[in-house]
Design brief:
The structure is a homotetramer.
Chain A lengths: L2 E2 L4 E6 L5 E7 L10 H11 L16 E4 L1 E2 L2 E2 L4 E6 L21 H7 L17 H15 L8 E9 L5 H11 L5 E8 L13 H9 L5 E6 L10 H4 L18 E2 L2 E2 L4 E7 L9 E5 L4 E5 L13 H19 L15
Antiparallel strand pairs in A: 1-2, 2-3, 3-7, 4-7, 5-6, 8-9, 9-13, 10-13, 11-12, 14-15
Helix pairs in contact in A: 1-3, 1-7, 3-7, 5-7
């Protein structure tokens, strides 16, 4: 359903062209300082408004924090963060299309909701909701700075687009082809203590992949050497222990052994499909006529949604790690508790 | 933790060289006929005792069903299935190794448990526990035959090992090299109704990947075209709707749109790493001496654990689908209820 | 934490004197018509603004439904309902009191949050949040009208206050004594199918009492004959079956046998403590001076909060029943699905 | 369903006359010493085999711990505890009765399971399963001894039976009347830190009552002054703070304020109904004939099941407290971790 996490728990809501999207963060420790400024950089990274290849939809994305914060600090109560949808042009989506857009949830969402779905801009299935994930990630990342022993850092970047390592060239290729492209995004977390992850079903890979596949357009995930591991010999793939702190001579396992963090950098990559809303003309079924038909998609869309994925990937990874740190007692229940409670 | 699922819920337990491993299935509908015979084929497939490249450990794997069944039918109460560990040679593992085995949980499990872990044969982190997943899968698969409208079927097979499509040749290569190999396993589910999966966080991919990554040795998962999708244009990747039943002209999305089943075959692949216990000599840290040391692993181990993965993959997939079917009201609460309750 | 329910799931947020309080309803079937008018009556009942013995705080309590509704019907996506706090006089609470109010969360909340709590009007611990429960109840009650076979109805009323059956007289007694009083509230649900409740831990009593004790000021709950059952002989207390539909000759069990609904009216009562904020002068510890001190409480408070409890009790009961009906397949997944999904 | 708890989680299974009953404890910290001897006293207390007024069914109740323990200590993996059912006389229950026993789950369980229920001795709905709760309680109580700062202790006793404070006399009255009786049981927990309980829905009262009502035969629960609180003035009921450690001048609230522990003893009472299986002749419906009929119940049954409840109450209370202590970081993740992990 629309919530995720055990002790650091997020609940998402909203629709692309509804009044708002947002998130509730339940289980955040008290005493974390939090202001709107904390959110700006990551929200800007996600919006990528100025980046070639991203949509011209221009939300200012100001987080409206309406509960769980008091005098600039978290109180331990649920934190509600709302983003109003302002730059909405629903006329582009004024009715369910006769031709459901390929790659979009239009058709399946209609079946699931028995015809009651909010069909404007994919409604609740829209990538617009990832702004809420980024907001949760901002809070989670700040928590990770308070990990006992050492801080945990999540970093992510796009490493390939449209089959090219040079991302600029990839975007140009897409513009020339008048078509959308996909990409590969890598994420790393450094500073993790050994032993995070809960056997049997809450392995580190299980939790990360669970939340990663809630991001629209993700088609695959691999940890460490990933799919290439299937082509190596055991003697090539095994990471030999180098020292007592868990450091390995290699990191083919991507920082995870037996489902638990092993003291090396956590590394994974995801495959992002090409934006479904390609500017190129396509053929699909006209539900009304029952005939295949040529059509093209209007509205504002990214040529390469993979460009927006890094900050989202950092965000969801930070949420998972924050949750596991709490379960492992490696985070303070209250951050910097006051001596005088009055 | 060690349970998974919302309405069809499994709880796993046991250790490789403890008294037993097993599973509790909570939320199974009443009225499902169930006998030990139902389990034989899939347990045999997993054991693969006669297959070249699998371990010589020879458990007879007889499921002991001690609750939740009455007169041959499920009652709706929790089903406890226990597999006794009989063919145990713990002497191979009589103490924590001074050299933690690369690729195994030895080192991280010791840290996590503060030295109290059952270190014999990886203890609770052992692949031995997958016998319990297969048992749960047997029950889940039988449930799927009672889906309203049409039955759902899960099928899986290994499609690549050690980089080879010819699996026999791959095993021979491993034997010759005296080394272990990995592989790629594909899984399909057919007959799924449209709309399974629960936005936002319980997409079909999210739930499947969550449970798939609880299987030891999985390094990656991809749906449909997967990582290749990242290299296609949108116009190439999009699946055009072909008819009102949701059938698409292609199936690059692997049967999932917007996180929901779309009426086409569900298709995904996983990467299985080469068995960590390779027969080849390796180098790793001797914790006691603090020196890197050459060593080789004893005990009975598969050259290619990927060979065992297909039936496990079917099993966990069936568990996820059974759970989602229940949530969607597409399974009867009781199977063939009796008219006369006395 | 701040969410409750398995398939019909609510997530609450907000503070008494913060920007707002509200609730997210996750798992509501699509196709339920919903408008602000639906909420008026129950919100008015809770506010009880005109009733003798309730506070003069005058919120207009207009539910702001900002997601999960489209064209007047639920879509199946999370429903966010926000109530803005307008009539706030925080000056009454401008700082943590030196004397924590007896019966209030002031002291324990400060300890729990390490001094970061929102101390204004009990913050997140305030009875103000029950407005959100009532909103969830409005949705749940509407769902219950769509139960297969027959509708389910929840009704609740105060049956005793300050030890008196005549409630008017009880309030007068409180006014005369210049003191607050408690009361007993009874709740009934009629039309329930047989077999609701999930053994072993989700008995009907377990789920109802869980959510009931989230309502501030509840000190006890009893089902059917309740505490008096402890004084009866078995032959007196047992309810004999009267007919094949489950109707019993008596209903000492309050409609529940073995944790499951038995086809008779569900009946339970709760004890509500006297309002902690009594107008009478009290003695308590001044934290700053370390001395016991006489003081009296300012602010606007009910003389008898039990008066507000009936509608809240109906609401939370309806939430539990809606959840169990869903799990039991006794509610449609979509209400009145459209034939033409376009 | 059949599991309860967030971080300290129990999963129950079994039937009265099946092969066994038992429990899995998931989330127990590693490093807790545990042996069969730890269980004897509490299991004896529950069995009460020598106490006047309890059943002559004589299970030796030896816990069979088959996983999660290694060399006498918990490992952090799920702990499976099984009790074999040996002293079973199913002939007493050889078929579903034509006359469902009043007060028992016979009728509702049949409806719920569509006729597939295990009807022998109430099957999964039997009080026999409370032996598993006691086993979980033994583990939970041992954990509570490791609470940071000070140990937590749970104690419970019967304070009234059949309306009498003198319990011996009450039993004699029941024997004379040839009828069963109920009782009131009180439970206390001392040594609790301030602030346990998680707003909004996981208040201390919510969690305790949730699990308490899973114990068969409980009809009511009240905290502190409980139902009597409804008859007091606020000035009488309020507990004034006495010192900075949270000690109050009175304890009408039973150690809980705002759903959180307040530093005073946690006190609650439950009402236990008279045993449904009274030896006295009763009238009920014969399902086959459709006529009301006189009958009497055979089998071995307690005259006063309330006598067994104290140890069960302690057990479930300890489970709740252990879970909350974990969430609050007030328990070590591993108990006495070893310095040398090899």
């Amino acid at each position: 359903m629309n919530s995720f996490g055990r002790n650091f728990r997020i609940q998402i809501f909203g629709e692309s062209h509804g009044a708002s999207v947002g998130i509730i963060i339940d289980g955040c420790p008290a005493g974390l300082s939090l202001s709107i400024e904390d959110f700006i950089m990551d929200l800007d990274r996600r919006r990528g408004a100025v980046v070639k290849g991203t949509t011209s939809r221009n939300e200012d994305d100001i987080p409206n924090i309406t509960s769980g914060i008091f005098n600039g600090f978290t109180t331990g109560a649920p934190i509600l963060i709302i983003f109003e949808n302002k730059d909405v042009r629903s006329s582009d989506y004024e009715k369910v299309r006769d031709i459901p857009r390929p790659g979009h949830a239009d058709f399946v969402a209609a079946i699931k909701a028995g015809g009651y779905q909010d069909f404007r801009g994919s409604g609740h299935y829209s990538g617009r909701l990832t702004v809420a994930l980024v907001a949760a990630g901002v809070v989670a990342k700040k928590i990770l700075l308070h990990t006992k022993d050492n801080s945990v850092l999540c970093q992510s970047s796009i490493i390939e687009a449209g089959g090219e390592k040079d991302i600029d060239r990839a975007i140009d290729k897409a513009i020339t082809a008048n078509d959308s492209i996909g990409g590969i995004v890598e994420c790393k977390a450094v500073g993790l203590p050994i032993g995070l992850g809960e056997p049997f079903f809450d392995s580190m890979e299980s939790l990360i992949s669970h939340i990663v596949f809630s991001i629209p357009a993700i088609r695959g995930i691999e940890f460490g050497t990933g799919f290439n591991a299937a082509r190596l010999f055991g003697s090539e793939h095994n990471d030999a222990l180098q020292n007592e702190k868990g450091k390995n001579l290699s990191n083919h396992a991507g920082g995870i052994t037996g489902g638990l963090t092993n003291g090396n950098d956590l590394v994974f990559r995801v495959a992002v499909k090409p934006t479904s809303s390609t500017p190129k003309a396509q053929e699909s079924l006209n539900i009304k006529t029952g005939e295949l038909e040529n059509f093209s998609i209007k509205g504002r869309h990214d040529l390469c949604i993979a460009l927006r994925v890094p900050v989202i990937l950092e965000s969801v990874t930070a949420c998972v790690i924050a949750d596991l740190l709490m379960q492992s007692g490696k985070l303070p229940v209250t951050i910097n508790p006051k001596k005088n409670l009055q």
